TrEMBL record, chain A:
The keyword Iron applies. It comes from Gimesia fumaroli. Residues 1-73 form the Ferrous iron transporter FeoA-like domain. It holds the Pfam family FeoA. Signal peptide: none annotated. GO terms for molecular function: transition metal ion binding. Keywords: Iron. It comes from the Bacteria. This is FeoA domain protein. InterPro entries: Fe-transptr_FeoA-like (IPR007167), FeoA (IPR052713), FeoA_core_dom (IPR038157), Transcriptional_repressor_C (IPR008988).
Automatic annotation (TrEMBL), chain B:
The gene is feoB. Residues 16-183 form the FeoB-type G domain. The chain crosses the membrane at residues 303-324, 359-383, 452-471, 483-502, 540-561, 709-730, 737-759. CDD domains: FeoB. GO terms for molecular function: ferrous iron transmembrane transporter activity; GTP binding; metal ion binding. This is Ferrous iron transport protein B. Residues 575-616 form a coiled coil. It is a multi-pass membrane protein. SUPFAM superfamilies: P-loop containing nucleoside triphosphate hydrolases. InterPro entries: Fe2_transport_prot-B (IPR003373), Fe2_transport_prot_B_C (IPR011640), FeoB_GTPase (IPR050860), G_FEOB_dom (IPR030389), Gate_dom (IPR011642), GTP-bd (IPR006073), P-loop_NTPase (IPR027417), Small_GTP-bd (IPR005225). PROSITE patterns: G_FEOB (PS51711). It comes from Gimesia fumaroli.
Length: 74, 766
């Protein structure tokens, strides 16, 4: 499954980042590396973007960008 | 806490040191820069890029130091010319900035693991570096313990803890920098496997065959690592044709060896960061919910979050208007006082006309917006510093995306409803160049406060005051109100297709990711807020003011020359002499009040006669003035463009008004006042101006103004770019004349077409 599919409060482990484009590079620079745990904290009032907790900080991603991240639920 | 330096510093203390400051966004970088530079920073733009140039010259213990502040960044992998700037400066490849002798890398102590990513790239630059752990207090309050001493030993660089918001740790940091000295070197981190360095060597040889100077190792590394990055496209243009093929071969060899680019870099650097922080950083046993998280649950809440956002925005803009009011009145009064002083010192003549009608009116017309800009910037600084700005972008992103923009454009566009100048300056929060340009280009379409006088005048003159809906006898929905609302929103509506067009057609293929940190909430630092507001205000006054000053003089000259003004000045002299006699009579009447005799009546009738004479002179003066304007260069230009504006229903006088209001839209009111024989000193609610506009006729006797003409003028002013301050700020922020020219051209076209449609369609209903 991909990161856009997890539900609020769920913690997932990243298995892979798809793509080699600017978005996937930026995701990796922000610390989204395979093996890392990520939690969905909530959504913006209109359902997009999303707020995540990773490596002890708060990161916001759009649904579209979260789609690039393959995860498995912990 | 400070580690012994790993490099020997030279005892010679003459050479000036250049120190670059770099760090992730939201690490308190600006606050620390302001503290270190003591507020003596020069702010400008780097040539060719939109990035702000902040350089502070200071002397520490007799040592001269130039501090160069770099834009906040998560990584040194450049994707645009703006991001390349930081790398170029650090490598000493930027003209006018010497290669830094040392780097201060600022990291958020509460988020150290991610911040060390950028730091590990900085280490690869082979420049001595001091690592600053900022916001140590916040980290501690979250239960994070960092052993700075141990970290310094592991990293082999000095580590300093600071709390920039409380001005703590600055002296320790200065000491650590002075320890480094100039001329020392620093070994790169070199985290990558042997295979990678072999490929790097190969690529270096390939690009060196056609280049005399050899690029630094760091650039070759970026060339290999950043797929589709800026360095790649740079070298593709500057070296041999087969570069992409060589790069692809190198990358696929690395992939086969198990080191796929770009994932390899992130994995290696984050692996290293975790290794460095092992046994050095203690986290609380489980991730507890921080105070920020608790606030966020409310402020990004589905219902309450939106509500709070709109109430806050309403409050901000309400404050901009209400708080600025008294200060604006004060500036206006001051302007009047100065005019009064000038009028007593200089007798009527070209010099007085230049000073009063050109300089004071022109510069005053710009300074009047200063209070609004200061208040708006105060709020923006507070919102940014507190961490709410990132949430505003988060909340608005979905809506703004339908325009092809992102949440980060919302605040700049919202600000532009007060005035496009601070709005355009606020686009600095947008890192993506194309998104920022789109926002800058549509910002002047938002209906700013300078358009209101134009709307008010024509609505009062031509739109009947019909109430459609009344509550308790007071009208709630009126036709005039509806027209005002329509005029105020037409620009914002037009901005939607314009932004869409710019994003989809002009800046195609550039999808800006919305990968953004939501920083923890904190109290804004008063020092930082004041500093930023002061800087913005100063740059507004200096930069916009100088241009307005020049344009006002030009427009004044165009309206003044080549006519013979001697008759006008003669009348003016007479009027002023009469003022004195009238005042004298007033005094005499007051003195004789005790005995209500024939003497008093006599004086009163004298006064009446004199007043009537003066009124006649005023009329004559207005007539002469309007003749002079008609024959001036400006008036000739008005006649000359009449064929172009006739399809809009305008006569040459309106044409003159439009030309004269190039520096600022509001000028049309005073120009129309002058031309319609009333003198320049009229307001938009002036009954006589409304009256003479209503009765103005074409040579054949038909009325010039009717509802479609009024609408056509209002639509024109709603869409046009008649504001020199905006165009100047646009030039400054984009560092090129190209964008202001584009903006002026497209907006004038839109304004013309809009006015044409309004008039031609309107006439069908008359």
């Amino acid at each position: 499954m991909t990161l856009n599919q997890i539900i609020k409060g769920q913690i997932a482990r990243i298995t892979h980042i798809n793509g080699e484009d600017a978005i996937s590079i930026r995701l990796m620079e922000m610390g989204l590396i395979d093996g890392e745990q990520i939690q969905l904290l909530g959504k913006a009032p209109l359902g997009d973007p999303l707020e995540f907790a990773i490596r002890g900080y708060r990161l916001s991603l759009r649904l579209n960008e979260a789609k690039c991240v393959e995860v498995e639920i912990v | 806490m400070i580690n012994t330096p790993t490099v020997q510093h030279t005892p010679v203390q003459q050479k000036k040191m250049t120190i670059a400051i770099i760090g992730n966004p939201n690490t308190g970088k600006s606050t620390l820069f302001n503290l270190l530079s003591g507020g003596h920073a020069h702010i400008g733009n780097f040539p060719g890029v939109t990035v702000e140039k902040k350089v502070g010259s200071v002397t520490w213990e007799g040592r001269q130091i130039d501090l160069v502040d770099l834009p906040g960044t998560y990584s040194l992998a450049p994707r645009s010319i703006d991001e390349m700037l930081a790398v170029d400066i650090l490598l000493g490849r930027q003209k006018g900035v010497p290669r830094p002798d040392a780097i201060i890398c600022i990291a958020d102590a509460s988020n150290l693991e991610r911040n060390l990513y950028l730091f590990s790239q900085v280490l690869d630059l082979s420049i001595p570096v001091v690592l600053v752990l900022n916001m140590c207090d916040l980290a501690r309050s979250r239960g994070i313990e960092i052993d700075a001493q141990a970290l310094s030993q592991k990293l082999k660089v000095p580590v300093v803890c600071t709390e920039a918001h409380h001005a703590k740790g600055v002296n320790e940091l200065k000491a650590a920098i002075l320890e480094i000295g100039t001329g020392s070197t620093h070994e790169p981190l070199a985290l990558f496997p042997e295979d990678f360095y072999a490929e790097r060597k190969l690529i270096r040889e390939k690009i060196q065959t056609n280049q005399e100077d050899s690029p630094p190792d760091f650039l070759v590394e970026r060339l290999l690592l950043d797929v589709g990055g800026y360095v790649e496209s740079y070298f593709e243009h500057h070296t041999h044709n087969g570069l992409m093929e060589d790069l692809n071969q190198s990358r696929s060899r690395l992939k086969e060896a198990g080191y796929a680019v770009p994932a390899m870099e992130a994995r290696m650097r984050y692996g290293w960061a975790r290794e460095m922080l092992k046994d050095v950083l203690q986290h609380p046993p489980e991730q507890r919910e921080t105070a920020s998280d608790k606030i966020d649950r409310w402020l990004t809440h589905r219902v309450f979050g939106f509500l709070f956002f709109f109430v806050l925005m309403f409050f901000v803009f309400q404050s901009v208007f209400t708080w600025a009011g008294p200060a604006m009145d004060l500036i206006e009064t001051g302007q009047g006082l100065i005019e009064g002083v000038v009028e007593t010192v200089i007798s009527p003549g070209p010099l007085r006309s230049l000073v009063v009608d050109g300089v004071i009116a022109g510069v005053g017309g710009v300074l009047i917006f200063l209070p609004q800009i200061v208040i708006l910037y105060f709020f923006i600084a507070v919102l940014e510093d507190s961490g709410y700005m990132a949430r505003a972008a988060f909340i608005m992103d979905r809506l703004m995306r339908s325009l092809g923009l992102s949440g980060k454009s919302f605040i700049p566009l919202m600000s532009s409803f007060a005035c496009a100048v601070p709005g355009i300056m606020a686009t600095r929060v947008i890192e993506n160049r194309h998104e920022r340009l789109t926002t800058i280009l549509v910002a002047p379409l938002m209906s700013c406060s300078a358009r209101w006088p134009v709307y008010t005048l024509f609505i009062a003159a031509f739109i009947p005051n019909i109430a459609y809906f009344t509550i308790a006898g007071s009208p709630v929905v009126t036709l005039q109100g509806m027209v005002l609302f329509a005029m105020s929103s037409i620009g914002a509506l037009i901005a939607i297709p314009v932004a869409w067009f710019l994003k989809r057609i002009c800046f195609k293929g550039d999808v800006a990711p919305f990968v953004m940190e939501l920083p923890g909430y904190k109290w804004p630092s008063p020092r930082n807020v004041i500093y930023r507001v002061y800087n913005r205000a100063k740059s507004f006054v200096v930069k916009a003011g100088t241009l307005i000053f020049a344009t006002s003089i030009l427009i004044w000259a165009a309206g003044y020359f080549p006519g013979d003004h001697s008759e006008q000045f003669e009348i003016q002299n007479k009027i002023e002499a009469m003022d004195a006699s009238l005042a004298e009579l007033d005094e005499q009447i007051a003195a004789t009040e005790a005995d209500a005799s024939a003497a008093k009546k006599e004086l009163e009738s004298q006064q009446e006669v004199l007043a009537a004479e003066q009124a006649a002179l005023f009329e004559k003066q207005n007539h002469v003035s309007s003749q002079l304007v008609e024959n001036s260069f400006l008036g000739r230009a008005g006649h000359w463009i009449e064929p172009a504006v006739k399809p809009l229903g305008w006569d040459w006088k309106i044409g003159v008004g439009v030309i004269a209001s190039f520096p600022a839209r509001e000028v049309i009111i005073s120009t129309l006042g002058t031309i319609y024989s009333l003198g320049g000193d009229v307001g938009e609610e002036d009954e006589s101006l409304i009256g003479s506009i209503r009765s103005a006729t074409w040579p054949d006797g038909s009325k010039v103004f009717n509802v479609p003409v009024a609408i056509s003028i209002m639509v024109f002013f709603a869409l046009c770019a008649q504001c020199a301050a905006t165009l100047m700020v646009m030039r400054r922020e984009t560092n090129s004349w190209f964008w202001p020219v584009v903006s002026f051209t497209y907006m004038t076209t839109l304004a013309y077409v809009g006015a044409l449609i309004s008039y031609q369609v309107g006439m069908l209903f008359i």
